UniProtKB/TrEMBL annotation:
Chief location of this protein within or outside the cell: nucleus
Subcellular location: Nucleus, Nucleolus
Keywords: Nucleus, Ribosome biogenesis, rRNA processing
Highest taxon, organism lineage: Eukaryota
GO terms for cellular component: small-subunit processome
Annotated Basic and acidic residues bias: 168-181
GO term, biological process aspect, one: rRNA processing
Name recorded for this polypeptide: UTP23 sensor motif region domain-containing protein
Known function: Involved in rRNA-processing and ribosome biogenesis.
Length: 221
């Protein structure tokens, strides 16, 4: 149990660090706008994590608004009884305006929603590995969340990926100073010793009266 708690705290700390980066460098603001696809909704239902919005809000640590596309809703309707719960969940989400009309692939509708360097500042939730790779390659402005056996996970920012190891720190040197600070500031306080604590100097005091007391000599026989 202690190990699970430790992992959960570590994961939450990492998510805060990534969100701080996106807020500082790419203009994301809470409440976050989260765009989900059918695969993600189905995974949440299969893993019995609860309502998709509650799961995402808990993971992000702040309020969020969930959206999907008409193409995702249309795709889920035609996927049979197994995806019924995901289809019902998608109906209660906000719809992204614009983009391709059904029956266009849900993949294309997600890519269209984050086009133009993700002007709407969506966080994308998907289980589609191909979509995740495409989002990672196409733009650094799209945070990606996916379901894992241990819960939700967020991919590291594509333009400042993994600033922890020595080789990755070399890559981070090429980033603007503001981006390096955004990734490093949160982590620098984790497990570090505070160096800004001011200690009061002890005031000079008089001699100890007990030390000044004359010693009593032993009586000679």
């Amino acid at each position: 149990r202690a190990r699970k708690t430790k992992m959960r705290v570590k994961r939450a700390r990492k998510v805060r660090k990534y969100l701080r980066f996106y807020r500082t460098c790419h203009g994301f603001r809470a409440p976050y706008k989260v765009l989900v696809d059918g695969n993600f909704l189905h995974a949440v239902a299969q893993m019995k994590l609860g309502h998709a919005k509650d799961v995402v809000v808990k993971f992000l640590g702040c309020d969020a608004k969930l959206f999907t596309t008409r193409c995702v809703q249309h795709e889920l309707k035609g996927m049979g009884h197994e995806f019924k719960e995901a289809s019902l969940s998608a109906r209660h989400l906000g719809e992204v305006k614009g983009g391709p009309d059904p029956p266009a692939p849900a993949f294309d509708s997600i890519m269209a929603a984050v086009d133009s360097n993700n002007a709407e500042r969506f966080i994308v939730c998907t289980q589609d590995e191909t979509l995740r790779i495409k989002l990672r390659e196409s733009s650094p402005y799209v945070p990606v969340i996916f379901c894992h056996t241990s819960g939700l996970q967020m991919e590291p920012p594509a333009d400042a990926q993994g600033s922890g190891t020595a080789s990755q720190k070399e890559e981070a040197k090429g980033l603007p100073e503001r981006e390096r600070n955004a990734l490093g500031q949160e982590e620098s306080g984790v497990g570090a010793v505070r160096t800004n604590v001011r200690y009061k100097r002890p005031k000079a005091r008089g001699p100890n009266p007990l030390a000044c007391k004359k010693k009593i000599g032993k009586e000679r026989p």
